[in-house]
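Propose amino acids for all 328 sites.
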């Protein structure tokens, strides 16, 4: 199989500020394996780089072989260094297999696309009034509010006053234990559904410390990279945020989901800042999730692909072969 990479620069509609930093553009990588396509999202927080992913793909190219149907063997041979690179290769191989078989990926996985949950829409960190305006103007019924870098309670109050949308919050590892224990109870009056990654990535003990001190459901994102991270979080979290980029692709995401179910955790399927390529791949397995946070294409201005469509918060999966993508 022939594999190539090219840069895929995505421009954000508004400066995207999280507890971990700000960006106006993300420098992702497009990966082609024959006629299959995959996307490696480059997230500064995870210390991946555009060049690093391109080098990784070039390095593993000779190990791919000729048969895309031997997915498990091919993926097992990939070194673990780059989760984003592995995710892009995994998605490109699945796209290729679906195209060779002439069926969409959700069918390959045996899934009913009507079961995909509605997606949230992300409002990144800004002044409380600006965040409230963005939430209101989106018209979306589920808003994910980024917190952890400022006046968190004022932000959620302003958004609650501006919209009746369901609210979820994501601190992106931005709070200490004491801050989390103080802030989370104050969010109850604004009907926040759950709190994502309140604590630093490494503070697993902190999740166990926090759990009995707050009522709101807690989800882990940065602390839960793969299924291997879940057993030590069991009992301390209510749900896990699954992303292809963390799990190393669709197959890794399915493994993470299976382990999460065995540990009685709920599942939110989410994305990074990604084009319709990476997000449509995730959407094909969204029927297995309780919640979806797959709004990447809504956050960027130069999406090169058409795949997943949105009717408000409802996600409509394409039914073409493989990912079912078309170029703009
Ligand atoms: Mg998150």
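Proposal:
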């Amino acid at each position: 199989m022939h594999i190539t990479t090219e840069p895929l620069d995505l421009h954000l509609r508004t400066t995207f500020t999280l507890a971990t930093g700000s960006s106006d553009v993300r420098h992702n990588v497009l990966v082609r394996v024959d006629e299959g396509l995959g996307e490696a999202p480059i997230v500064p927080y995870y210390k991946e780089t555009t060049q690093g992913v391109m080098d990784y793909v070039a390095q593993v190219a000779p190990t791919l072989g000729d048969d895309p149907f031997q997915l498990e063997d091919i993926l097992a041979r990939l070194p673990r260094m780059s989760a984003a690179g592995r995710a892009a290769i995994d998605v490109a191989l699945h796209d290729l297999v679906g195209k060779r078989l002439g069926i969409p990926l959700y069918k390959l996985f045996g899934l009913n696309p009507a079961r995909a949950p509605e997606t949230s829409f992300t409002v990144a960190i800004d002044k409380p009034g600006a965040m409230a305006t963005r939430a209101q103007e989106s018209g979306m019924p589920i808003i994910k509010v980024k917190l952890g870098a400022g006046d968190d309670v004022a932000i959620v109050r302003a958004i609650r006053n501006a919209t009746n949308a369901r609210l979820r919050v994501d601190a992106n590892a931005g709070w200490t234990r004491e801050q989390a224990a103080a802030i989370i109870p104050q969010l109850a009056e604004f009907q926040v559904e759950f709190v994502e990654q309140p604590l630093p990535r490494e503070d697993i003990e902190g999740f166990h410390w926090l759990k009995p001190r707050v009522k709101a459901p807690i989800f882990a994102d940065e602390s839960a990279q793969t299924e291997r991270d879940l057993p030590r979080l069991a009992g301390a979290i209510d749900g896990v945020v699954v992303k292809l980029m963390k799990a190393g692709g669709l197959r890794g995401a399915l493994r993470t989901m299976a382990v999460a179910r065995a540990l009685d955790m709920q599942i939110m399927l989410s994305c990074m800042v990604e084009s319709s390529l990476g997000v449509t791949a995730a959407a094909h397995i969204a029927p297995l999730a309780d919640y979806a946070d797959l709004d990447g294409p809504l956050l960027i201005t130069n999406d090169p692909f058409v795949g997943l469509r949105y009717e408000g918060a409802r996600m409509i999966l394409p039914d073409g072969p493989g990912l079912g993508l078309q170029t703009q």
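The longest helix spans residues 83-101. The chain has two domains: 3-102, 108-327.
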